[in-house]
Automatic annotation (TrEMBL):
EC number: 2.7.10.2
Name this polypeptide is given: non-specific protein-tyrosine kinase
Organism for this UniProt entry: Kaistella solincola
Membrane-crossing residue ranges in chain numbering: 33-51
Keyword Amino-acid biosynthesis: no
Keywords, ordered alphabetically: ATP-binding, Kinase, Membrane, Nucleotide-binding, Transferase, Transmembrane, Transmembrane helix, Tyrosine-protein kinase
Catalytic activity line of the entry: L-tyrosyl-[protein] + ATP = O-phospho-L-tyrosyl-[protein] + ADP + H(+)
Amino acid sequence: MIPEKETAQSASKIGSFAIFDVEHYIRRVVRNWYWFVLMIALGLGISWVYSKYYAQRVYASNLSLSVSNNTASYFTPNQSINFIWGQNGNQDGIYLKKMLLSRSHNEYLVQQLDLYINYSTKGLIKQTYLDKYDSPVFFEIDKSYPQQVDYPITLIPKGGNRYEVVLPSEGESTNLYSYETESFRTISPFKRPENKVIGLNEWYVAPNLRFRLVKNEQPSPIQFENIIVNLSTVNSTVNNLFNTITVDFDKEINSIMIITKKGYNLNGTVNFLNTSVDELQKKRLIDRNTVDKNTEKYLVENLNNIRKKLDSSATVLNHMKVSEGLYDVEKRDEKSLDEIKALDTKKAELITRINSLNSIKNSLASQNLDRLINMNAAGIQDGIFDATVAELKNLYAKRRELALIYTPNSEPMREINRLINEARTNSNGSLRTYYNTYLGELAKIDRQLARVTSGLVSYPAKERKYLDAERGYNMIEATYNTLLTKQNETQIRVATNKSDITVIDPAKNLGQEPIAPNIAKAKYIIIGGLVLLPLLLLAIGQLLDSRIRNIKELLQVTKIPLLGVIGRNSHDNNLTVLEQPRSSISEAFRGIRANLRFLHKEDDTSKVILLTSSIGGEGKTYVSINIASVLGLSGKKTILLGMDLRKPKIFGDFKINNKFGISNYLTGEVEMDQIINQTSIPNLHVATSGPIPPNPSELLMSEKSINFIKELRNHYDFVIIDSPPVGLVADAYELMKYADASIYVVRHEYTEKHMLKMITEKYHNNEVQNLGLVYNDYQGGKQGYGYGYGYGYGYGYFEEDATYEEPTIIKIRNKIRSIFGRN
């Protein structure tokens, strides 16, 4: 059924094609399936090469340890309850984490483990990083000799524990690095050292290098064709280490730490972790003993002084008893005296703590942290303060190192002094907090003593004197007992001291799988990227392609009736209907003949049918010839007019002489019967275009041309006009006025979408009547007649079926069906 024309309200949407045809895009993707198979295969190949030759594996090893909380010091702060504020916190764990990630600790490890010496080996494509102990020889440098860093040195085994030293062909530098001072120095230019074969323990000397090779007694069983050694500065090595170490706390027990080290070699990460914790244990034990011994010495000195005061106070008290006979005070208020004694004891303890704080403050002020005493002597456990003091100690040590290299006013010295002042300010701030707390408590005790001792005024002077002497003795005795208790605690710690770090699980090489790169993810990314490439190219092509490729979209946009779909013509000329009458294309033209009745009234008058298109090459002449042929074969007297005077074509297919044609008739050179030619079909005549005239438009629009068409109506049942393309000239629009029906030929994947806008608008504005479309050169798989749902190939119905070959996907489907016994 022919669709109705659109109303004016919906006509505004007509003629606008979608920017992106999803349906056609999917068909193109399916049609180009082999590209995706190729991309997947290529992606698998690239992934394999990447995994085998280019992916540098990254490994990780773990070490877990616990931090005991039975002791504390500045340099080994304890996880504890803060003395004043009563707060819980993982102070020691945080401090230990800072120690593990501190520059001083990692610099020590870099120096201790020679981590600034990097080993690797290179195959045909890939370079692999090695652990020091995988190498058959150790690379030992002379630290007193300036060395060139970032300069790959290749060692090639020559047999007999001899190695050829091969240096780069270029890249010699006069800016050399000193591992003693960790600074650069400049030397005079020099010529590239020649390659040289050296033995074990033999010094290799060049202007920019001095090293020797030491045998590894337990090397890796793998034989390496080469060993590449690259030196780095200590600073750059430390900076790189920071990015490979992570410290986490156990979620259930926050005193347990899990340290992770990442690296290119698993053995290297294991050695680093175990050495790092081992050195930290030793350092913390030394620091712990130093502080406790300082505390013990401090307590002994104070005990000696207090003992003298205690003896002196006892002498005074005994003298009063003997000389003055005062053994006791009559009617004494025991309750008040007991309260006074308790307050005096607390006061003596506070004064002892304040004196300990004074000692700590004086040590900080003198910058002699090696004489610091334990904060326990002041009755305090503060991990934050301890960490601050430990940081201050490290900064002092760092400043001593920098002072050997830089001048006092240099930028590094100014920066280290700024950090020291900041740490000192933080530590003094903590001390002030404790001072204020203790002094506040002391003032409170003094007020209480003043209140209680006011009741002693009633005692006689002689008895009050005795009570004062007794109070003094009790305070000194309380101080002595407090110091003695602290001394006993300190002596026990010194005798039983051990590192508060206990390794739970040391780092081990258990054959752990690499943590990076993610080979599977990389493979999917590579394959996905390659598959996306043809998808993207097809999408870009789809966006840039403005040709008609979708029949459904064509009909939805134009709302012009479709008379039929013509498949691709594989014949060597345009006479398909005449020479291949049983072909599917011939059947399609018969379908168009049947559908023509919908475009004009069913009466006995002759029918004039005009064929046009947007531009040349769309098959307008081909369709004209074959429509005229099917009409002639059906018994209808038909004439085909070649009225595309600018580009004559019809005569060639019918083997007609084009010396005289319509152009000659319209100019009056010949008569009508002289231009009408008989064909092999009795009912089909042809009038060719004739020679190309200088004024084709004027001739076609002339009165004689119109009368010519009217005259032919009287002699033929159908007059088929092959007119000029409307996209190039306007001749066809004028001829349409005299036609009973017009056929607009659209060629698959050839006609531009924008070219249909004009004919669509004219049709829906009623400027063109009785218009139908013919879709030509369609290659959608099923080629037939009518609306494109013809019989198709492979059913033994058309001539083409003799050479028809099933598509591969159909073969696979049929094979599967045969296996399962389905027809």
